[in-house]
């Protein structure tokens, strides 16, 4: 143990903090115990060490969010990762914050609306472009990857209608860029109606 670890342990016990760090350790330990049964078996592995002992590894666990300003000036918050904070109802109806862990991870995504197109940029590290499945309709885009090591899934509601037949995508250095062309609005022409 280095002097830094020893100093940190002594500093944590300093009376000024009143057991704050010990309480935090207990809370984290309790959350981990509650979360463990909900972890998908695909995210749990065992590895044998050179000394013969076995170590149980879990993960990866990813959670984050991005925040941008929309065209109306209001913030748009998008979560990503495979951990979802939720509220669980206890027997007496009291909500308790919990965490759901999923095997598939939501990628970090940014959506940019331009005059004639919508650009979607997604971070999908650790895969090949042949692993990516894209499917779009007039109002949504679905990104999915299902490999042995990485699983991603995200269904996006698009800010405007697009023409699914006119789209292009590229993937380089873990970043997917999809350009979707907005649907042209048909200009309705008037017609003279004769009276009988």
Task: Describe this entry's structure for a reader.
The mean pLDDT is 81. The strands form 4 sheets. Strands 6-7-12-11 form a 4-stranded antiparallel β-sheet, with no helix packed on it. The chain has 2 helices and 12 strands, in the order H-H-E-E-E-E-E-E-E-E-E-E-E-E. It is elongated. The chain has 2 domains: 36 residues; 120 residues, Sandwich (Immunoglobulin-like), CATH 2.60.40.790. The chain is mostly beta strands and 196 residues long.
Overview features:
3-stranded antiparallel beta sheet, 2 domains, mainly beta, Immunoglobulin-like, elongated, 196 residues, 2 helices
How are the secondary structure elements laid out?
Layout: H1 3-12, H2 20-35, E1 44-48, E2 54-58, E3 63-69, E4 75-89, E5 95-106, E6 108-113, E7 117-123, E8 132-136, E9 140-146, E10 151-157, E11 162-172, E12 175-182
Antiparallel strand pairs: 1-2, 3-4, 4-5, 6-7, 7-12, 8-9, 9-10, 11-12
